[in-house]
Amino acid sequence: MSWNSSKLDNATLSMLQNVNVSIAMSVIYVIVTFINIVGNGLSLWLLLFRTSPKTPSIIFMINLTFTDLAIGTALPFQIAYQLHGYHWVLGPNMCSVLTLVFYTNMYCSILTMMAISIDRYLGIVRPMLFRETRERKSIAVISCLLMWGLVLSVLYPLMTTDLTFAIPELRITTCFDVLKKDMLPNKMAWATFVFSMVFVLFLFPFCVTIFCYVSVIRKLARDSKNAQKARAIRLAFMVLLVFTLCFAPNNILLFAHTVLKLFHGKSLYMAYKLSLCCSCLNSCLDPFIYYFASKEFRQKLRQIMNLHSLSSADSMKMECKENLYSASEAVRG
């Protein structure tokens, strides 16, 4: 996002007129949309209808899957917008919805991953806490509602402002690529807004997540079998990969871009826009997190993937049993 003044900065104008970057990001969005809908559609079906009991981790995963599917359904609008030369034709309300979907997906995903890591920490490192299953389920549901409430409260300025901006010299109307300075009253308000996004919704959850997984791995290294320890390490690796590949670049560049823009008149807009594109990749990687985080999800997925081979194996076993039975009858005869 850039801020408008009497004249747009060169970085913003360059990005809006760069056809190659627009096409490259659109191609990434097309691939992400396809993988997102297929992977998260299957995940949601498994989590809702084929996985029980609904443990806290499963509840958090269902919440995460819904946010991922939301971004999957919103991306085609972003693709059309970019291929149309950054010209938004669907009005300010749809622009606000699209922007909210992008950012709620990112920050709800971050908070949900933190919640999954806390649940695993409590279950493995502190098993005596929250032992009652019903109590843990209620806490998980309330936690999901609190996540959405926190994210929407931080992003409230995006819901109350017209995020479209007309650029007569380019004959286009942008959506969230150029923000009005009067969206917030002063520089301090802008700094507080971005600080809340970067530090409250990203850095703090990131630190909590690292602490929980490091504690889990240390506990399992002392007490568990190699297979369980290996799964915990793979899960930690997948979560850290999502954070470092998808979330960290965008939030770091958002902070740097804001500081440079507000206090030095410079811009990192092109890099920030590309990092926003990369942040959507998390919706493709989340199903792998479900696979390593949930034993029930892992078992159901394996059943579906191996259904045909299992049927063949069962048939071979039946044939072997029949052959053995026939042989024993022949011996008796």
Automatic annotation (TrEMBL):
Record keywords: Cell membrane, G-protein coupled receptor, Glycoprotein, Membrane, Receptor, Transducer, Transmembrane, Transmembrane helix
Q: Which InterPro entries match?
A: GPCR_Rhodpsn, GPCR_Rhodpsn_7TM
Q: Which domain of life is it from?
A: Eukaryota
**Gene Ontology CC terms:** plasma membrane
Transmembrane segment boundaries: 23-48, 60-80, 100-118, 139-159, 188-214, 235-260, 272-293
Kindly list the places in or outside the cell where this protein is found, as annotated in its UniProt entry: Cell membrane
Membrane topology annotation = Multi-pass membrane protein
Q: What is its main location?
A: membrane
Q: What biological-process GO terms show up in the record?
A: phospholipase C-activating G protein-coupled receptor signaling pathway; positive regulation of Rho protein signal transduction
State the Pfam families in the record: 7tm_1 (PF00001)
Is Transit peptide found in the keyword set? no
Q: Does the keyword Transferase apply?
A: no
Q: Where's the G-protein coupled receptors family 1 profile domain?
A: 39-290
Q: List the molecular function annotations (GO) for this entry.
A: G protein-coupled receptor activity
Record family assignment:
Belongs to the G-protein coupled receptor 1 family.
Q: Which PANTHER family match?
A: G-PROTEIN COUPLED RECEPTOR, P2Y PURINOCEPTOR 8
Can you say what this protein is called? P2Y purinoceptor 8
